[in-house]
């Protein structure tokens, strides 16, 4: 095969482009002392009260990263897992805004699990038909683990088959430090990082149905007694419009959150591993408190930093 000869001018131009790209990469991803690439510098550098423990990451859409803190190593994420569950279900069974979706029959397993005192559940009864959207709400708002597993079985035939889909989606999104082992997050073996979960938050908030459900403070579902109340108590404060809480003894407290900045830009953040080893309730309170301080500071500092 004949060789293609690059003219001197074209070859020089190619070399110049390569040098320029290498320089740009050096600026954006400066090497660490051991030669590995470091994380990108924040696009917007604000004085923020990052959590003293665990890990966190945040960004402003349209502006870029606000940075990350803490060692980004995989840790249990508890019910934050359910954001990926909703993402996969809606990718397989998309709904238009306001659409109820197909009616799904509650099975005996979901009813049996609804009385568990060991995990968060939603009170559903076997044989009752509930629309897809309402089941997604029962999973995301009060954090019903039994509903997450019911949706997984409905979507893929078994929870194991559904988990395989979750991990494929994580890989497709570039979540290289994430492993899902269940649809609800009750398993401590489901682990991720704040930076990985921030990638998911970015995609989840593009979905009209997820965005509407996670912004709901409380709702009623036919056949489910009483008001269904959101575990995310930051809703409506500091511009918060979602996303999802998580808590367990191993995970501590976790929160994936979305808020509107002054001017309307979407702020996304994830806080993980707050007060691990303590009670789940104490961990969740810590995650909510540290997230509230972080969101409040971003709301305060961002306008001046972006003028």
From TrEMBL:
Residues 99-126 are annotated as: Disordered. One of its GO terms (biological process) is peptidoglycan biosynthetic process. GO terms for molecular function: serine-type D-Ala-D-Ala carboxypeptidase activity. Substrate binds at residue 244. Residues 68-271 form the Peptidase S11 D-alanyl-D-alanine carboxypeptidase A N-terminal domain. The keyword Cell wall biogenesis/degradation applies. Coiled coil: none annotated. Residues 112-122 have a biased composition (Low complexity). PROSITE patterns: PROKAR_LIPOPROTEIN (PS51257). Pfam families: Peptidase_S11. Keywords: Carboxypeptidase, Cell shape, Cell wall biogenesis/degradation, Hydrolase, Peptidoglycan synthesis, Protease, Signal. The keyword tRNA-binding does not apply. It comes from the Bacteria. The active site is at residues 79, 82, 143. Belongs to the peptidase S11 family. This is D-alanyl-D-alanine carboxypeptidase. It comes from Amycolatopsis mongoliensis.
């Amino acid at each position: 095969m004949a060789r293609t000869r690059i003219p001197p001018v074209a070859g020089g131009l190619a070399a110049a482009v390569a040098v320029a790209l290498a320089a740009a990469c050096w600026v954006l991803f400066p090497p660490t002392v051991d030669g590995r690439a470091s994380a990108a510098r924040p696009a917007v550098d604000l004085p923020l009260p990052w959590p003293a423990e665990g890990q966190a990451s945040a960004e402003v859409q349209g502006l870029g990263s606000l940075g990350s803190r803490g060692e980004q190593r995989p840790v249990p994420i508890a019910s934050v897992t359910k954001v990926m569950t909703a993402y996969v279900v809606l990718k397989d069974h998309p709904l238009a805004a306001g659409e109820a979706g197909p009616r799904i029959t509650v099975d005996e397993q979901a009813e049996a699990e609804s009385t568990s005192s060991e995990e968060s559940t939603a009170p559903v009864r076997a044989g009752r038909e509930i629309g897809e959207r309402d089941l997604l709400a029962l999973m995301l708002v009060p954090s019903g683990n039994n509903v997450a597993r019911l949706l997984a079985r409905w979507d893929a035939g078994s929870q194991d088959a559904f988990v395989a889909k979750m991990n494929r989606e994580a890989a497709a999104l570039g979540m290289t430090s994430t492993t899902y082992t269940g649809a609800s997050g009750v398993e401590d073996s489901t682990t991720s990082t704040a930076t990985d979960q921030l990638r998911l938050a970015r995609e989840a908030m593009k979905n009209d149905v997820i965005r509407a459900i996670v912004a709901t403070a409380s709702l009623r579902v036919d056949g489910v007694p009483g008001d269904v109340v959101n575990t995310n108590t930051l809703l409506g404060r500091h511009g918060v419009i979602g996303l999802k809480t998580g808590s367990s003894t191993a995970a501590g407290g976790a929160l994936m959150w979305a808020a509107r900045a002054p001017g309307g830009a979407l702020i996304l953040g994830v806080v993980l591993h707050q007060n691990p080893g303590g009670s789940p309730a104490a961990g969740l309170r810590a995650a909510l408190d540290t997230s509230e301080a972080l969101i409040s500071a971003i709301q305060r500092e961002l306008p001046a930093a972006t003028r």
